[in-house]
Amino acid sequence: MSGVIVLGEARRGELRPVSLELIGAARAISEQGAGPVTVALIAADAETYVEQVNRLGVQEVLVVPTPQPQFEAHVTQAALEALIEQRRPSVVLAGHTIDSLGFAPAVAARGGLGFASNVTGASWGEQGLRAQRGAYGEKLIAELDFPDKQTVLLLLRPGAFAPAEGSGSASIERVELDLAGRARTEHLELRDPPTGDVDITKADFLLSIGRGVEDEDQVAELERLAERMGATLSASRPLVDAGWIDAARQVGQSGKTVTPKVYLALGISGAVQHLVGMSKAQTIVAVNSDHEAPIFGVAQFGAVADMFEVAAELERQFE
Ligand code: FAD
């Protein structure tokens, strides 16, 4: 038992960013002693992604073609079970995504594997694999190990691990598995959700507002300010709960995980449920009238100030 299998995830012809994060995490535990990293691409168009993952310092890429063009959870489940049976890896990493949630718990249960979902940290040591994940509504971090488990399957939270970079050239193997008849659903079409006008996970610059706003009318003002600054407006949960802002813009545990270059937080206290969604932003700037607000604990730049005074000054600067 050795080595790490990473399950690459793609959609609509593109490798999803979480795949690079999984490889980054896999390389880190590989360097700590978990063994070589293999990326498994299970998809009808798996070949398309080989070049991209091949360059990321992994040892092997497995191309596993599927009969149907779209992702189907039972097909991926059957393929992954076969790979685990053949390869007997110590660790399998997949994204904590809607796709993986459709098959990974079943793979773990059927195979008797160690398993943890929504994982935010992973390391390899003398005792084998260790994982961290939030507990009690993210108020605590739980540290997990997996005694007596030969293989452990982890679902890593998107945005929680640094994406892999670098160069290299892996060996590439095509694995033909008998996956015919495994699908239990028929894919009809992909449709964008009605709220799909904004994708805060792709924004480089987020102007994020919280309960400090106090008045619904201010939201439109701040959205105009965001546009002027070239930022996308996002928010903490109370503004979504109040119906002041669309749920697609919510950052945090029950919203989206974002990793912009700049996260400018106005009137957000920094509750743990908010921090888990934005603390990996490259630069965090916080404005809060309370100098003890926890958001200052993760911010590189902070101002103890009235957010409306700061907003007014920004209006002037970006006229
Ligand atoms: P508050 O905590 O009320 O903070 C408002 C801040 O504004 C204060 O720090 C105050 O000092 C400051 N302020 C007030 N007036 C001004 C002013 N004029 N100028 C400057 N600063 C000012 N929250 C999320 O955000 N995202 C989630 O996904 C999420 N998921 C959750 C899931 C669960 C299971 C639970 C239990 C909670 C979740 N929450 C989430 C809620 C979270 O616990 C907090 O309640 C929430 O993040 C607080 O939002 P806030 O910082 O905007 O409001």
How would you characterize the overall build of this protein?
The chain is α/β, with parallel strands linked by helices. Helix 3 packs across helix 4. Strand 2 and strand 3 form a beta hairpin. The strands form three sheets. The protein has a nine-stranded mixed β-sheet with strand order 9-8-7-10-6-1-4-5-11. The chain has eight helices and 16 strands. The mean pLDDT is 94. It binds flavin-adenine dinucleotide. The site of flavin-adenine dinucleotide (FAD) has 28 residues, from helix 6, helix 7, strand 15 and helix 8.
Which structural traits does this protein have?
single chain; 319 residues; alpha/beta; nine-stranded mixed beta sheet; five-stranded parallel beta sheet; 16 strands; binds flavin-adenine dinucleotide
Question: How would you concisely characterize the structure shown here?
Answer:
The chain has 319 residues and is α/β, with parallel strands linked by helices. It contains eight helices and 16 strands. The chain has a nine-stranded mixed beta sheet.
Layout of helices and strands, plus pairs?
Layout: E1 4-7, E2 10-11, E3 14-15, H1 17-34, E4 37-42, H2 50-54, E5 60-64, H3 73-87, E6 91-95, H4 104-111, E7 114-125, E8 128-135, E9 140-145, E10 152-156, E11 171-174, E12 205-209, H5 216-229, E13 232-235, H6 237-241, E14 262-266, H7 272-278, E15 283-288, E16 301-304, H8 307-317
Parallel strand pairs: 1-4, 1-6, 4-5, 5-11, 6-10, 7-10, 12-13, 12-14, 14-15, 15-16
Antiparallel strand pairs: 2-3, 7-8, 8-9
Helix pairs in contact: 3-4
The chain binds flavin-adenine dinucleotide.
